[in-house]
Description:
mainly alpha; binds zinc ion; elongated; 51% helix
Amino acid sequence: MNPQMLTLLRESRGLSGAQLAKLSGIPQPTLSKMENGLAMIDEGRLQKLADALEYPTDAFSWTDPIYGFGSAAFYHRKQQALPQTTLRKIQAQVNLTRMRLNRLLSSIEIDTQYVVPSLDVEEYGTPAEVARAVRALWRVPMGPVRDMAAALELAGIIVVRSNLESPRIAAISLDNVGTYPALIIMNGALPADRERFTLAHELGHLVMHSVLVTTDEAEREADEFAAEFLMPAAEIRADLRGMTLARAAQLKVVWRVAMSALVRRARDLSMIDDTRYRSLMVSMSQKGWRKSEPVEVPHDHPTVISSLIQVHLMDHGYSFDELAQVVALNEAEFALRFEVEPPRGAGLKGSHLRAVK
Ligand SMILES: [Zn+2]
């Protein structure tokens, strides 16, 4: 057993040492020694920990590298205010997600057509210029990006939807490190229009920023990148002249971005003035559209993870429970996290897990 994994698995459930002690029936001083590698863990204790944390015992012996990802990944959108236990829980879950993906990827090669370039904003002039360069590099056709998640996956970025513990976190993106590919974990609760802008924003970070950049400027740059990537100025400008809410609703269907993003784009490209922008935003607030917009657009469909699962099940002959073992999850959680249908008659009772939709 790897003491660091014990800590990671405990944190991934949002539990303190005291709480795990209570749940597992192992005295807290002993538990603390175990986590520091100073106490032996016999099989009986390992089983108690596994039961308390609802992980198979295998997970405790993983030796994958565990990465902190610094403040940068947590910087945007006001999440510093989150409690430490929540941040640790997210950090642990992100690490576990990467470890599980690595196991699924170990026997399968993913075809990628493009790379994620590292581009310097100062060299290019503006984040919008960088966005144009990436569109060109990736051969994105003119007009709306049909499927943002698919575009990212073609460049080798894995896209995962997850419950990120707080509505305040839209997404977390991680550069490729070691054998881990670049990864964007997005909040599964986001509506489709925000999801796409969020993905483009995170791509902006991956392309333009090192993990050390944590400034409001970097956030502004990622937003400008996303706006140009999804709504290229040269192609959308004429449509935005004299913007109204009815017009924004029509354009939303075409461009698959939020009405608020279109209204902001109209202002940023000087197609409406500040007064008009503010009055449109006030109208949207009054109608409750800042929280939930009318006009639904379809969600993007990341496919890499579901293909990984399918290849294991169909081509490599894994059974459902064998594959759950590969990623060291109990079967109920495996079905939930990877959106796999458990086989009929599989006993998934007795778990505390619920689907988060
Ligand atoms: Zn950001």
